[in-house]
Amino acid sequence: MADAIEIDGSMMEGGGQTIRTALALSALARKPVKITKARASRPKPGLKPQHLAAAETLAEICSAGLRGAKPNSTELEFSPNEIKPANLNVRIGTAGSISLLLQQVLPVSLLQEIKLRIVGGTNVAWAPPVEFLQAALFPVLRKSGARLDLKVRKRGFFPKGQGVVHFSSKPAKLPLKPISLTELGGLESIEIVSSSASLPKDVSRNQAVAARHALQHLNLDFIEKIESSEHLATIGSAISVFARFSKGAVLSGSALGMKGKPAEQVGKEAAQALLAELEAKQPCDSHLADQLIPFMALAKGKSEIRATKLTQHCLTNIAVTEKFLPVKFSVRGSLGEPAEISVEGHAFSP
What we know:
CATH class of the largest domain: Alpha Beta
Number of strands: 16
Subcellular location: Cytoplasm
CATH architecture of the largest domain: 2-Layer Sandwich
Organism: Candidatus Iainarchaeum sp
Family: Belongs to the RNA 3'-terminal cyclase family. Type 1 subfamily.
Main location: cytoplasm
GO molecular function: ATP binding; RNA-3'-phosphate cyclase activity
């Protein structure tokens, strides 16, 4: 592919994150990309259903040429054209993550009205739950100028998925305002989102009770959202816990239920994950930091975040973003430790 940006997946540890960020910025910058050795570091390398669904959805939005988009392929070529409004039905297949598919679509949604009905997994392993996008990611992006909305119509768990989410966007106010998450502020409240499908109603309730009990020493108000659907095509449970601060910071913890695992243990695990984030005393959740990297680079002016933990996904996103945009990130901190990340944005505007 002539003049394509080439990315060797074996040189990056982010797995599917490399693919998502590369294709998203390829579409936005109108620069073709060729990815080789995709997900080379994973036990089963190559493209899986959620990667294919995301690539095909993005290709349809920007009328892109797409080569290598087949199961287990380790090479993918993407040649974008003009981004146009879209109204699509997307079926990921099995319980592929809806949140990860949306990560790939969010950058192009800055330019056009995009409407997606997505069927897949809402709460699955190794991916942010959809409520994380609602509670943590979208509020930051809206403050920066994005116009995004997300509604969960039905939960979907591994292995069947069958969750349904409606996503919509309108053209953002570009260039984006810089992103700043540098002050924690005072801890004001805890939000609990506990859900289950095709299980007794007590499962969702017991998860929430256990999480609240593990966090009661914080002496805060609890806001609870308990969801229970006893008759769905999917079966499973999940819980997310969000700590909200006076200066807008949101830190999180989550856990998934599984066969033989008591609901009380699931709730306790989510609370413990949140407490680990709180211990770092930084305003940017470790799972949020990597998702903000492309938008920090696109914004006008200096963006700066102080993350609870520097992750490999974050470093991967920085490396890929710097291949597509004329920016250079500054990272102060070590992998697995709190870190300060900043960049002078590109001030992207079509």
